[in-house]
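Handout, section B. The chain below has 601 residues.
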Amino acid sequence: MLMNTHEARVDALRKELARQNLDGFVIPISDEHMSEYVGAYAQRLEWLTGFGGSAGSAVVLKDEAAIFVDGRYTLQVREQVDGRLFAYESVPQTSVAAWLGEHAPEGARIGYDAWLHSKGWAESAARALAARNATLVAVERNPIDAIWQDRPQPSLAPAVPHASEVAGRSATDKRAEVAEWLATKGHDAAVISALDSVAWLLNIRGEDVSRTPVALSFVLAHADGTADLFIAPEKVTPDLVAHLGNAVRVQPREAFVPMLQGLAGKTVAVDPERAVAAIWKALEDAGAKTVAVTDPTVLPKAIKNPVEQAGHRAAQARDGAAISRFLHWLSVAAPKGGETELSAAAALQAEREKTGQLRDLSFDTISAAGPNGASPHYKVDEHTNRPIEPNSVYLVDSGGQYLDGTTDITRTVWIGPDAPPAEVKDRFTRVLKGHIALARAVFPRGTNGSQLDTLARQFLWSAGLDYAHGTGHGVGSFLAVHEGPQRIAKASGGQAGTGQELLPGMILSNEPGYYKAGEYGIRIENLILVEDRRIEGADGAYMGFETLTFAPIDRTLVDLSLLTGEERGWWNDYHAQVRALLAPQLAGDDLAWLETACAPL
């Protein structure tokens, strides 16, 4: 019998924990690859709690339970998760480990799935539990899987080659770079466990995770330039084998752990942020020497080569035309009433599909009307779907996956027919000023993202306002829409954000925002490319940003009295570029709308 209520599922989990002699269990949103977005088979937290965000965890004890989310999901978690079943906890104010240190019963056995957590997390949780004479126990079988009767199976869609013509580099060249790094460091092999890292290294793509074109697999890269790919045999085609060549040995996924167990005496590089605790344990139990180091593909993947940069510009131009057709449609249809968040999201996807080159969306469209816009990572469904009402704020954050690039854009628009209130215009213009300040930034080599974050927040701060998310994330090339190691965000824990310096070729988002709970949300997002800047007489090397995203920004929401001459100049220059790039792709009423939307301020 299927359990149709979350209360029944929590009750069934507690009974399963008792069968496994456990006093509690930790449930993250994760998979065996530490992915941000996971396949349906790994959506254990959503199945148990109803929470549909992309980051969060829960703990279920015998007599209480809690769910942990960050500031992006403060509103969403309360709408989706029953507060009678789970206490709401905010990260980073608290953590799962800290909560367990206070709530776990004395002497308790708390279970976790070592294939879903990092080694560092397991160590910190074990330390917190030790204060209560409790222990953290790696389960042999995930108790959620034991009770989730209609759990989907992992995807068996084929893995496909990603041609060098769009990748810009051959897989052979990439493997040689990793091999050279291993040899220089004196390491024998590196575990490549992140799905986008595997995809980048071998120039393969897949359909195993919604919105991210990756194939479920692991790689063990060796210092001699060869590699072992561990993947379900059903996913392997003759085309894939031919693409990989003789230097890549294709093995069934089940052979991964035995291969790790055979590395006794070898020095193996493992990424503490991307490799789950079970991988570390297999290596350490085998007697391998593990070295904690960032996956050697992460930085070269983040620095887009010239072919990837050109592909991204082409994808953005195509995507910008689709966005403009949608915004024109919205400007006509929405003020009449009758449109909803779901109908708008469908209309936008249809415009992208008209390009004939859309492979997938790059994430579920955030189509947010009125108060729903105040949840930065709002996800519309049949239950939350809200009408787009005349005289209200509508926010749409969306993106497309194209063979030549991954896009991500947010536009906030005023749905007329009346003029927007002064407060909304003020908040929008402060967000716009921050967006422009970051877009125009010039900075020396060695600068990291946290050093630029204040530029985007300063005009909100001066009015006593802020937003509870980062300002910018890295973006992949027909890969993950959220990609590290670069980001633009507040420094955390006394450290300078991630500490990763920005380097030419990196793509980031520029997306300051403002959110008024119960009323509206505002965000303006373009993608930007780090580029070298020549400055006459400069002391050292300097960099700036090339804006990559081109679509009109809603001029009706701008309070012109708040803009400086330089900011107006940026606006006019930007919209002149929008017009030049998109006008050849538009016709008729769409083109006429674009001309009006891009007229100088």
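Note. The longest strand covers residues 526-533. Compare this with the example in section A.
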